Amino acid sequence: MKNLIKAEWFKLSKSTGYKMLLLCNAVSVLTSVLLLVAGTTSPGYEMLVISLTSILHHSVIGYLFAAVFICNEFSNRTFGMSLLCRSSRKKVYLSKIVVYLTGMTVLFLTYVCATTLVMTVANGFGISIKHVKELVLLFLCGILGNIAMSSVIILVATVAKKTIATIGIGIGLTYASLWIETTFRAKPLPFVKLLYTYQIGQLQLWGDTFSIGTFVTVIVVTITGSLFFAVTAFTKMELK
Q: How confident is the model at residue 240 (pLDDT cuts 50, 70, 90)?
């Protein structure tokens, strides 16, 4: 398993597609931050909160990453050839999942840290030491939310297998998720509260109506369920 993860990480480090996504992320950071610096005096910690709670807006990059890193393995028949090394299907795919989740976390933290740093340089961080514990907790929730979204993306990519299908379904799910998150934010239906997209949106209400217990429960169930079904689907599908 360790060697499989190393091999996947090596492929990611050499991936032109991933490097392009990092570049696109950097450009979006510069564009958004320059606009913010020009029109606001908000301190760095406010940008940290905003960027940590804008997880769903990273889903398009997530689906593009899945298309490059996962779907291409189906089209190039790399998964089928990986089984020739006598590793089980589950280990082969789990190694892919570990590296994908790591890559998504890097993309997410690149955006969060870069925007926060620029705003801090421009306007200062602007928060007292007594709020650091709360920010650390929010930071961890943001990472968990990003992993949950990434786990759903993995499931979609596994079922769709094809690049175009994954991106198309991903864009559709992104708009649907954002619509649900905004439409039912004030008066959510009972089932809506159980959606990871709604709970991610609730991060914006940190310290108000946000329930960390509900958030963690929904997010952990989403991660566990998505990855379980993704691995199960992969182990049962025909690989050419």
A: low
> Tokens in use for 102?
């790591």
59-106 pLDDT, tens per residue? Answer: 888 999 999 999 988 877 666 556 556 668 888 899 999 999 999 999
Cα–Cα distance between 27 and 23 in angstroms, integer?
6
CA angle 62, 68, 69 (to 5 degrees): 85
Q: Would you give the DSSP letter of residue 53?
A: T
Longest Cα separation, the chain: 58
Quick check: 181 and 201 in contact, CB under 8 A?
Answer: yes
**Which tokens hold the place of 238?**
């025909």
Helix axis angle for 89-123 and 132-160, nearest 10°, is: 140
C-alpha distances out from residue 136 to 48, 79, 129, 131, 165, Å: 11, 38, 11, 9, 37
pLDDT tens track for 197-239: 888 888 877 756 788 899 999 999 999 999 999 999 998 887 6
Fill in the DSSP letter of residue 158. H
In 3D space, the residue among 118, 108, 111 whose CA is nearest the CA of residue 43 turns out to be 118
| DSSP for residue 89 | H
**C-alpha–C-alpha distance, residues 73 and 226, integer Å:** 20
